[in-house]
Structures are given as C-alpha cells and as structure tokens.
Amino acid sequence: MKKLLAALMTAALTLTAGVALAQPKDRVVIGASLEPPVLDPGLNPAAGIREITYQNVYEGLTRIDRSGKIVAGLAESWTVSPDGKAYTYKLRSGVKFHNGEPLTAETVKFSLERLFGPDTKVVGKALYTSIERVEVVDASTVKISLKQPDIFLLFNLSIGDAVIVEPKSAATNGVTPIGTGPFMFKERKQGDSVTLVKAPTYRNPSAIKLNTIVFKFISDSSAQINALLAGDIDAFPGFQAPELVEKLKSDPRFVVVPGFTQGEVILATNNGTEANKRPMSNLKVRQAIAHAIDRKELIQAEFGFGVPIGSFFPPSDPDYVDLTGTYKLDLVAAKKLLAEAGYPNGFEATLKLPDVGYAKRAGEVMVSQLGKIGIKLQVTVMKFPQWLQEVFKDRNYDFTIVAHTEAFDLDRYTRDYYWNYVSQPFKDGYAELTKELDPAKRKVLSQKLQKMIADDAVNGYLFELAKIGVWNKNLVGMWENSPTPSVDMSEVHWK
Amino acid sequence: MIQFLLRRTLTAFVTLMIATVAVFVVLEVLPGDPALVMLGMQAEPDNLKAVRAELGFDRPPVERYFVWLSGLTRFELGNSYAYKTPIAPLIAQRLQVTLPLALMAVLFAICVGLPLGVLAAWRQGKAGDYGVMMFSQLGIAIPNFWFGLLLILLLSLGAGLFPAGGFPGWHDDFWGSLRSLVLPVIALGLPEAAILSRITRSSMLDTLREDYIRTARAKGAPHRTVLFGHALRNALIPIVTIIGLFFGFQVGGAIVVESVFYLPGVGQLIYQSINNHDLIIIKNVVILLTALVLAINLIVDVVYAALDPRPKIAA
C-alpha cells in the first residue's frame, strides 16, 4: 500500500512538472458556448459559424463595423442608382484568397449568384430575393440589378451570409473555409476547438497584430468560468450565464462588458387561426397580457442585463421608437380586459420553453406575472430540436419565450409564421418600407410598423438580449456590441 | 469451453441486433426533424425538402434501417448531418479521450477500492473498517460533477497542480494530455472505488466465514496466504461482476465529467449530437457502446470461468 501511494505521488509530481508556459502575446484563446456544425454560413444559420468566420476568414463587399454602420469591405466604394434598383461596387485591387486565387469581378459574380435564383440552397436566401441579376462591368466593377427597390439589401450584403467565396474552394468551405480575410483556417478539433492563423495572403498584413486565434468550445457555464479563472481562455465574448458574472467582476484580471445585440426576447404568443381559435386570438386577451408584463422584474431575473422593449425592434437602431408605455403595468386593467373577453377567472395555457438560460429565467417570471391575472401556465422545457418541431413548425403551443436575433426581422410579421399573426395593413406598410429610399420617410414608416404590432400586442415584448463580454483586461479591440454575429479579431491586440 | 464461448457470442450478437432495432425505432419516433434543425428558424420549405432528400429522409424507414445496417457491417457509418464529415473518424477521435478516461477510472477504482475493501474485512469492527466504511458512504453519496468542481477548485485553481479542463491531444502533448485526465479520472473513479470497497468488504466477510478458511487457519497457514490466497480469490466473483458493470456506468458518468472538464470525448459528442439532433451520430455511438458493453460482458464471463469452473457446466 505504501509503495502504491509512493508510486502514485511520484506519477502526480512528474505530471505536474512542466506546467503552463507563459503564452506569447500574439495568441488569443476565445471561448464559445456552442460549437458550430460547419464553417460555411451558406449551409447553416448557426450564429457560431458567423462568429468565427465573419471578418476573420471571410469578407463581404461591404461590412458591418462594431457600431453597426455599413463600411467598405472588399469593395472600396459603391453607388446606388436614384431609383434604388442598381448597386454598383468598385472592387479593391490586390486582394487574394487564402489559396492564392485573386479576387476578380468574376469571383464576386459567382459568389453572389449563389445567394439568389431558383436553384439556390443557401440558408439565407430569403434575404436576397430582390436581386434580379449580377453583371461584370469591368475587371474591378460589379453591378447588381434589383427587381424592385430593397432598402435592406445593402445591410444584407454586408453580413456573414453574403461573404465572397471563390469557385475552386466554395464546395468545401464547410470543412476547410477559404476566404480573403486577415486570418486563415488552420485546424479544427471536433468538439474542442477551431484554430485560425494570420494569413500571408492578406492585403494589409501590418495592420494585423495577432498570429493565432483559437476558438475553444465549452458548453457548461461553470466550466467556462473555470477556464477563464485558470487562464485557459482569454476572452468569452458571448457569456450566457449572468448569474455567474459577479465572480468575474471581482477578479482584477478581467473586465465584464455589457453590450447590445439584435435579439428581441419575446413571449411569443399563438394568435390562433380561424379554424383553431385560442383565447389569445382575442385582442383583449393579448392586451391584458401586455398589461401584466413587468419588464423591470424580468431584467432583474437577468441580473440587470438587457434593455426593455415594447415592440419587435432593437433599441440600438436609429429608427427605434420606445413603445414600452403602450400597455403600462396595470393588473386591474388587465383583469378587466380579460373579463371583457370572457375569461373573468383567467384560463390555463402551455408555456413551452427552449432549453436555454434566458428563456428559462424569463419563463419563471412569466408564470408568476401571468398567474396574477389568472392565466395559469403549464411549463415544459424542451431541447431546441424538439422546440423547432413542436412550437416553431407544428405551432402546437400557446406561449413560448425565444430571442429573435436576426437584424431587420420585422418582416416576420408579414409571413405565415409560428405566432399566426395576419395583418394586411402591416404587410402593405412593410412593402412600402422596403421601397422607401428617403431615410427620413423610412424612419416614419418603420416607427408606424413598430407601433402597429405593439398596439396589436401580437407577442409579449420583453427585453433586448444583452451581449455579456468577459475578457482579459489587457486585451484591446474586442467588439463590445453585437450588431451582427461576429467575433471580429482584425483589430484586437494585447496591451 | 469453446461451446460455452460460442453460445455467449451468439447471445451477444442477437442482443446487438435487437439493440439496432430499438435504437432506430426510438430515434425515429423522437420529435424533431434533422433538416429543420440544420436550417433553423430561417428554414424555407424548398430548402427543407432538399436537405431531407440529401440526408435520405425521403426514403421509407425500413429501407433506411437496412441501409444503415449494411453500412454498419462494412464499417461505413456515413456522414454527420451537422459536421458534414465522415462519422467513423469523428467517433475514433473522441474515443481517444473517453477510452483512456474510462479505463483509468476503472483502474483507479480497482487500485483504491479493492485494497480498502480487503483492509476493512480484515479489520472488521475496528477503526480501519469504520474509516473505510465512512469513505465509501461519502464516495457513493457525492455526485461526480460536484466532486469534479471541487477538485478543480482545490487542485487546479487553488494549487495549480492540474489544468482546470481541456485536452491538448495525445499527439501534440502526451504528458499534458495525461495530466489533463488526472482529475477527471479521480472524479469518475472515486464513487466506483467507494462502491467496490463495499462489495469487496462484504464478499470477503462472507468468504472468511467459510469452513475452508477455518481449515486453512487451523493448519497454520500464514495470515497473508489465507487473506489473499484463499479468501480473495473466492470473493472475486461478485467483484468482477461489478467491475464489468462499471464500464457501462462510465458512459453516463463520462457525459457529466467530460462536460465539467470540457474534454472532447464521446460523452460530449452524444450531448452535442442530441442538441444538434444529429441522429446518425447518436445511432452509431449507441450501437458502438452497446457492442463494447457486450464485449466486456463476454470477457467477464470468461474471467468467471477462469475463476470458478462451475458455471460453465451449469450453463
């Protein structure tokens, strides 16, 4: 027994020798909760794909900067015709893909043509239906012609879905991504990490300070904290456990940076159909629910992270109008409306939650808040695949809580969507908005639409999801906000 | 002996076939559509249809079952829905973490649990016995995720002796990989050591009451010979059974422990595949694990036969 113990001790000591060497200061390890399935944004909508690849590996003609503005990317300039139906891009010269292929107008045409047309399979194709054709004007000029004006196209061509890829490597980008960005793909350890290194082909190498970026996937939130505390990871740009943040705030090695996202957290409400009426088909019931929502309490449950919203629109957008006062917190008014709708004692309903932190926290609060006006919620928590099937696709639910994270997603209210809202005035208004080229008039139209769905209380509008960034205090240049899913490392360096 | 082995192999094979049907049916009725999961909330109907056809979901279930089965016999497991890469290397890569983890945890359990059990039986009713019994109570009661966190807090974040998690890979850093498995092995193996010490103690106590032990003692055999030569060998049958079962338990334990120590092992693969609804991975991993457990049971049967010749005549 003694010998065994001694042997074990020796083994342990041998193993402990050679502990952590000091890391060179051109390497950053980034933590992420979810591992992206593939690395081609055309194949899968996962935000994780865009977070790793957008602006690091792939670039678009234009890009979204850290404040949400559209700025030059692979195109150094662009013009929009007065009728809003033609976009002309002037390409940057001397751009090379990681496999050595040059960027030409032909490559851009190839890449953009993957986004639209009858045969396209890309997941984001709904964003590009207004494009009619793409033409090569000369070696460095590309013209996009539209079927009708589309004010969102410029933004949509700047996000991770519209990055420029190259014909020889396009088919294998899911496994070995090839782009024009400052970092190129080095290796992937499935279930563990993706490593990028500085690309020798990049047009402006001196601007890039980092040599190696490792994206490490850790799903368990206490393991995430341990990895930060142990120094295994330098940054967690999208930390999702606000309940554990206090521990990091008190540690002088880290900074905790709250920022905005494009994610509206809503109490999605099944408005029912003609054939399948529900209590919530009645506007008065939905108004009663809106009167019962206490956003302050909901944000407290998020440990103070998040911004209250009164409609389906991000507060960071210049066209935002604050509609949180549309239905003030008023339980008496709520009960009166319920009684008028024929439910003086409330009713029972299902609340089917996806298995994610914010939804479960907000779900608990909603049970208590709606319970106060007699709406008894039966809670089921399900894995996301089941949620997608049962709630999103089959629409077999009364209430759910989910964040809608896409930018400019007001168009969901024009579609046959899982909350079963049908409004011709909204559809007409939205069609008008997409064609309006004057920014001032556009703002008026957008606010009118925001107000329309707030008044109709289509869903319970709760709060804008916060982006909680945690990183080493010596790390400079990380994005504080998330105007589009990206962990852009091009400007990041160590102090 | 050969007949015995043949019979056991045949039983194992039939069990495996039943398992393939069970796994296929369960995943078939599980709510959720892999194509929908891949395309998410932006799914367009025609894209959904295309992806379903690409994954072969437009074929009838019976046909899909036999396509899968024939692939299994040729070790062609197909491509992961989510990763789009072949599954076999994916699983092989994860086994490089989980197999050593499981084996070392069982080894740890044997090295700690067995001597402690023998000690307790030998010192029955004395301080040593009570000490071991207290340890085993504690070991059984502590959930391994919590114990893992405690180990990280003390030995990793506190003393800095071991990494808090992660796995550098055998190729890149052999000793580093071994070091990163030390805490997970303890977290996974300790509850098993506790169980093993209990089983060993009671089995030893039973044997120590047997007549032949008294005979051995009476003829003046040294204490050590009686304890290890006569008693332990005969007490081993239930102990081997438990050790065989431990391999099966490792799967459940590994999911938890791998998550706490963020190790890219099979447990994490199962967890992620359930989240991604990557049914094809789940299907193959479950069958692989079933085959593994059946193989271990077979080995346990053979060890039984070696330890005690009687069962093979009865069977």
Question: Can you give a write-up of this model?
Answer:
The complex is a heterodimer of chains A (495) and B (315). By secondary structure, chain A is α+β, with helices and mostly antiparallel strands. Chain A has helices at residues 2-16, 47-53, 105-113, 153-156, 221-229, 245-249, 283-292, 295-301, 331-340, 357-371, 384-393, 424-435, 439-455; strands at residues 27-32, 62-64, 70-72, 75-80, 86-91, 131-138, 141-146, 183-189, 193-198, 212-217, 235-239, 254-269, 307-308, 347-354, 375-382, 399-404, 460-472, 475-476, 493-494. In chain A, strands 11, 12, 13, 16 and 17 form a five-stranded antiparallel beta sheet that branches. In chain A, strands 1-10-9-8 form a four-stranded mixed beta sheet, with no helix packed on it. Chain A has a four-stranded antiparallel beta sheet with strand order 4-5-7-6, covered by helices on one side. In chain A, a hairpin with a 2-residue loop joins strand 6 (131-138) and strand 7 (141-146). The longest helix of chain B is centred in the C-terminal third of the chain and has 38 residues, at 223-260. Chain B is mostly helical and 315 residues long. In chain B, helix 5 runs antiparallel to helix 6 (127-141) and helix 7 (144-158) crosses helix 8 (174-208). The termini of chain B are close together. The chains are: A alpha+beta (495), B mainly alpha (315). Chains A and B meet through helix 1, helix 5 and helix 11 of A and helix 2, helix 5, helix 7, helix 8 and helix 11 of B.
